Amino acid sequence: MMELHNLPVVANLSDNVTIVEKEKIKIVRVVHKKATAGISLFGGHVLSYQPAGQPDLLWMSDASLFDGEKSIRGGIPVCWPWFGGIGSPNHGFARIQEWQLVEHRESEAGVVVSLGLKSSEATRHIWPYEFHLLLHIAIGDELRLSLEITNTDEKVWNFSGALHSYLNIGDIEKISTTGMGKEYIDKLQNNQVCQGGETLTLTQGIDRIYTSPDERIIMQDPTLNRALTVDNTGHNSAVLWNPWDELSKAMSDMTDDAYQTMFCIESAIFSPCLSAGITLQPGDSHTLTTTIAAQNI
To answer: Which residues form the active site (predicted)?
Structure first.
């Protein structure tokens, strides 16, 4: 997974928090007795979260670019103000904008890093609305992301999006997942609405939008001897994705066999078009969260 300790230091904010640099991207590095983490200011993107005594819970592609232009492959991208290809760029613009470090708070329980993104000339060129995003990232015994979305415009607008978590796993063909619900939209079958079982195992690629997930999804990973829990709120769906071998080979920012050790379980607000999704009145806010934790099995 991602190596943070040998990156050049740009600024020391405290004993636990430093700013480091990888290629053209600045990263907030957190080293605490509970966990270590890395958060890219480009994209407001959590790259790594490793609780004490555990392998990293997040997967990062060894082939990902860090050029400050193309989105980063792995970790937890912020997809907003839309999810998927209903607008351009794909998955919105938040993951390719430079976020600001608002504050960090430290305690015995861990570190909370808050990042902000506001509407600008660059974002208005893509999406003609005023907004303010606050992403609170709590790093401790578990990892909690809370994305607070506020309409600062005088007009009503709609949005969709996702916290697109790439989970680090031992072997894609040995994991099993529950809690995602049974009904799903299958992106690999022309958006056909399908019914599945209560437990999911995989022998081929998957790209599904589960429309009635539980708040908690559990993934059993016998190879790494742990279960990962993913608790989501503020969502209307859970997206499960793995590209499998052919798509991995076709993607320039993934190695050929990378699909074997990653699985996406995403806290998502799905919408089939830009005019649907969640509607925010001027001054109103909505919060989308995901909390990821590991338990030994």
So the answer is: 164, 266
